[in-house]
Amino acid sequence: MAKAEKPVCHLMGMPEGPLLSKQGDVIIGGAFSIHSKINQPPMTFMEKPEPITCSSINFREFRFAQTMIFAIEEINNSSSLLPNVSIGYKIYDSCGSTLLSIRLAMALMNGQDLTVGESCTGQSAVHAIIGESESSSSIVLSRTTGPFKIPVISHFATCACLSNRKEFPSFFRTIPSDYYQSRALAKLVKHFGWTWVGTVRSDNDYGNNGMTTFVEAAKREGICIEYSEAIQRTNSHERIASVVEIIRMGTARVLVAFLAQSEMEVLLEEAILQNVTGLQWIGSESWITARHLATRRTARIISGAIGFTIRRSKIPGLKDYLLKVNPLKNISSSILREFWETAFQCQLPEKGNAKSMRLCSGSEDLTELKNPYTDVSELRISNNVYKAVYTVAHAMQNLLECTDGQYPTEGRECILKDSRGPGQVLHYLQEVNFTMPSGEKVYFDQDGNPAARYELVNWQKNAAEDTVFVTVGEYDATLPEGKQFAMNNVNIVWAGNNNSKPSSVCSESCLPGYRQAVIRGRPVCCFSCVKCAEGEVSSKMDSTECTTCPLEYWSNKDHSGCIQKRMEFLSFTENMGIILTTFSLAGACFTIIVAVVFTCFIDTPLVKASNTELSFLLLFSLTLCFLCSLTFIGQPSDWSCRLRHTAFGITFALCLSCILSKTMTVVMAFKASVPGAGVPQCSLPLQRLSVLCCTLLQVIICALWIALAPPVPYKNMTNFTDKIILECDLGSAVGFWAVLGYIGLLAALCFILAFLARELPDNFNEAKFITFSMLIFCAVWITFIPAYVSSPGKFTVAVEIFAMLASSFGLLFCIFLPKCYIILFKPDKNTKKHVMGKAHMKSL
């Protein structure tokens, strides 16, 4: 029986060969977009498709590939890192195509062997892969190699989606995630006060994910987006032109361009054609330091651009290494040949050369070139490639030390002692932590990301009118919130090489004293400014709402701040206070003058007939009535509030008690049974007693009021919104109305008794004058009640003073003015005969 054949796995199709390669004990794969264009043959579905070809060499990506080789050679020559272990490399070109990324991924895993061997299982051709430069290509590469635990370390793929450890368990990168850059860009826009921006992005994983994060962060910062467009470098000219037209017609003066370099190039070309000037460009790290974009041709379009990029670095010896690259050293390398011919615009000699192009000798000097390959002034992404190679070397070092028994240290454990496959490299990559010769620390977090630190660069012109990238700020995501973003003391050049910062808002800022009112159907950044209502203020620009002033404060004239409310009370210095004070003092003076007149003519019949003692007591009480009104003027205090109401009650009770006693005396005198008899001798003590008792009762009422619930100063803030009325709170309304009621009772008794005595002799009819005075007194105080209740603010006090003065003047003029007139101007009538004339006639 024939022996069964062992299974052999055959490679389907032709193997992909690397552009640059070298054998070694450890092989590191490289994936770069060395060409930027692909020429895809037509698909006829009738025959096997022709292979995809690439064109248009990308000098910057070629520098990345050479930086990787330089780092590998540097490690191979090192005696401290991986001694006695040589590192080889296999570098492939993806041409920026996800399709080719799959092919190179398969090539890096399978190698170039047509058969695997006796078993269909085997070890990958590489231990780790450096690349890709684009997020979409990196996603394809990581998805393909992930199941085989082949680590991928990208130097330029920033899509935050690649941090998903479930989908990309073997992905690492030496450039920060867009999770941080997008938020940094939002904070940058907010820092400069721009709330109305336009956005354009690459229509791929890099642009779409980065812009999504930016939009979310911008919304939290209060930034609105006028338009958001997406482009691809493969879009038609009409599509690119329409996007640029939208940008040109937009009202936003700030444009956030989250673009890969290739998309930025085609967008910028169209922007030049349409002459899109005056825009402030905000760039992502992909293109913001791309020197080949910063030409004098593009300066008028994109001058003053600003954006975040990773920190620059220096790689000693790299420039010399790059300048030593020569196709004659490796004649079989097609990429070196293409690089040389493209750089010097010539053709290296070989069979069948076309004579239309000048020939290269191979000895041309690279130092004479000025292109992205020889430009090492901004080693940012190249440094990421450099670090990526060193991270693989340090992971291999730890792995080899573990398998040789020299490891673990610091409590670490070896996982497998007998394997050096990619899975083991993956494990040790996660634990890498070392310091580069430049002093930069290299480590990964749990998602394979490095620490997020950025420089904020600004496109400025130097003395030679060339564009330079000036660092004007920093962003460090490892710092606490609020301290992450910091500006340097460097002047920024803005769009159009201006020194003044452009403004980009949908609506002009609302001044203090106004609030923003959202316009229906428009973004929140588009608003109208509405003045704050009375009593409300906004102290800052662009306030979204007005705040109400505290109870004792009111808004100022422009509603930008709260000021203390105006205190209102009846003052001695204002016109009304002066008038009332004048009338009060005038009334007191008139009363004193009457008292003087009565004193001078005290022995005359008219004065004697008026009951001298009661008349002087009445004049004294009237003087107090006039003067007590002064206690109602001025700022209320504890003593003035208590004094004004008690003085008012007691003085008017004394005054009315005197009138009541006087009326009773008159009635008793003229109702006596014996004609011609005088006032009974017992009437004088009776008069005094009646005055004392009537007044004492009011004193008791006032004392109880003061003792139980006295009037106190009170700030009335309910009747008026813009001022505080300083008034006396009654304390007890019952006490106040008891005082007024008692005065009203005395006035009513006086009026009744005087009315009963209205038929007394004409020559001495004092009862008529008392009746008339009581009529005025009652009328004044009856009208006082509604006026008092309805009068606002200080007019309440003025009405009360007016009632007091009017009633006092009524009593003074009605009772004493006729007598003074007779005494002073009609002395012939001031005789006993005239005073008692008609009474004698009646008695006869």
Let me know the largest β-sheet. Answer: 8 strands, mixed
Find the CATH topology of the largest domain.
Rhopdopsin 7-helix transmembrane proteins
Query: Which class of the largest domain in CATH terms?
Result: Mainly Alpha
| Order of the strands making up the biggest sheet | 10-9-11-12-13-16-17-18
Report on this model:
The protein is an alpha/beta fold and 844 residues long. The chain folds into four domains: 20-41 and 50-175 and 316-347 and 356-382, Rossmann fold, CATH 3.40.50; 178-313 and 450-497, 3-Layer(aba) Sandwich (Rossmann fold), CATH 3.40.50.2300; 514-564, no CATH class; 575-671 and 680-812, Rhodopsin 7-helix transmembrane proteins (Rhopdopsin 7-helix transmembrane proteins), CATH 1.20.1070. It is built from 21 helices and 27 strands. It has an eight-stranded mixed beta sheet with strand order 10-9-11-12-13-16-17-18, with helices on both faces. It has a six-stranded mixed beta sheet with strand order 1-5-2-6-7-8, sandwiched between helices. The chain has a three-stranded mixed beta sheet with strand order 25-27-26. Helix 4 packs across helix 5 (205-220) and helix 6 packs across helix 7. It is rod-shaped, with a radius of gyration of 53 Å.
